[in-house]
Amino acid sequence: MTASLRNVAIIAHVDHGKTTLVDQLFRQSGTFRENQRVEERAMDSNDLEKERGITILAKCTSVEWQDMRINIVDTPGHADFGGEVERILSMVDGVILLVDSSEGAMPQTKFVTGKALALGLKPIVVVNKIDRPDGRPQEVLDEVFDLFVSLDANDEQLDFPVLYASGRNGYASTDMDAREGDLTPLFEKIVEHVPAPAADKDGPFKFLVTLLDRDNFLGRILTGLVASGSIRVNDPIHALNNEGKVVETGRASKILAFRGLERVPVDEANAGDIISIAGMTTATVADTIANPEVTEPLHAQPIDPPTLSMRFSVNDSPMAGREGTKVTSRMIRDRLAREAESNVAIRVTESADKDSFEVAGRGELQLGVLIETMRREGFELGISRPRVLFQTDEDGNRTEPYETVVIDVDEEHSGTVVEKMASRKGEMTDMRPSGGGKTRITFSAPSRGLIGYHGEFLSDTRGTGIMNRLFEKYGPYKGPIEGRANGVLISNGTGEAVGYALNALEDRGELMIVPQQKIYEGMIIGENAKPQDLEVNPMKSKQLTNFRSTGKDDAIRLTPPRVMTLEQAIAYIDNDEMVEVTPETIRLRKAILDPNERKKASRRVED
Known about the structure:
By secondary structure, the protein is an alpha+beta fold. An eight-stranded antiparallel sheet has the order 12-11-17-8-9-16-13-14. The protein has a seven-stranded mixed sheet with strand order 2-3-1-4-5-6-7, with helices on both faces. Strands 18, 19, 20, 21, 22, 34 and 35 form a seven-stranded antiparallel sheet that branches. Helix 9 crosses helix 14. The chain is globular. A hairpin with a 2-residue loop joins strand 25 and strand 26 (438-446). Helix content is 23%, strand content 32%.
């Protein structure tokens, strides 16, 4: 059975064309009918993935090619979703590394590739987008080789096969100049180069859980690789944790196998196959599901620790409950518990007052995606500024997370970027020209200093810079880092904003609201041009007399306000501020709305 089976993962940096290539593999293997209507990037199945064009959740699929079944695992390219990646790689026997023929090997590729090589997986390198006019395939190949050497690849891994492909146009070839054909060479390389699963067909049934999701009808669905033996529907099974303790016993009520994009019920599954099992109620990721006589668990890959946390609290603003349907702490607690259950890179702890929850994750993007998902489900939340999670080393010194930051900028902006990164305690480790008038600069910087920098970076580089970040290590604490330079404009009352008042406030700084927008006391309505916070009245209307009528003056012309996305808002706020997130709006506010209480609290902090 296992001889006609191959398990392979696809690794690529964000936006290098991985999911598009999988689309073409489906089409050319006959998974889709000729006339079947299929969405573009079929593997990016949830709304957020479609909008952002990135893969957030790892997914399994399979294609049939010449009597051979190839299970393909689509991995997230972003390090923030690395909790998914590490476990998934334990299910496969080889990896396809996809690199852009122009951009080359990027930091997120490095993160996943490093994990894959450490597990001893054999890579196949595919240089994608070979038809790009600015492609430089030979240099990119040299970069990949250097990357493998720096990641301590062994000789067998360094002797990797190379294909040149265009995922969008659906061809791959060993010839760098080919511009037509199909993906047959890629299928052949997978069959020839990736070993069959080294599974024990005759042993007792063992299965390591690597992914977990929920189904309204089947309950918990555990996905993973069958390491040995076989299982039939309704066989008795039990779950062992890492220490070998029995977590629960039950039966395999349903066995599902991947066929194209569908999960199809099957009666039996054998060693080497990637399947999903339903029927357990508490078994989770990294547990071993096995025959009742098995007492030794399979080795599970340890997960990197969370580095960042935010406080999710009940929305207590004067406008709470107007737009969302899920506003109570119980609903928020249940939703976060479900998230922590399926996403092992997230940790949730409840505060003493029961109204807020500390949610720790791998980065701003991961937590931002969780907040955006909850918002679309109808939740209202108050979100605090992200905090990094400090640790202490053996000598009792405080340590903090560092990230490797790789920045590609036009040469004229490189001085500004180096200066800004230095002010955020980043140390430059490398600087080299990367072709096309661009410079690639590498920094080692504390995660704390990078919170909120991305928007400023885009402004500094006129939107042309590309910044990639990757968790590096826990290193020595770098001391205080200066925060936001400007104060904010705070509303001193509740009501509706008036155009006349906003016109007068434009001299004070940049506004974030429009006339007729509902506001409340303590809400942030703009950025002050000076470092201090300023309380203002955006509801002041024009005093009308016999001589001053409404239409007498020129029409008011306001500068368009600054509208922030969720991530920008989270990055912008200071320690005493919050983001109010509802299904329809994102508002910035002070954590303490009453100005007198706010002054008392700031005095206590100074003391």
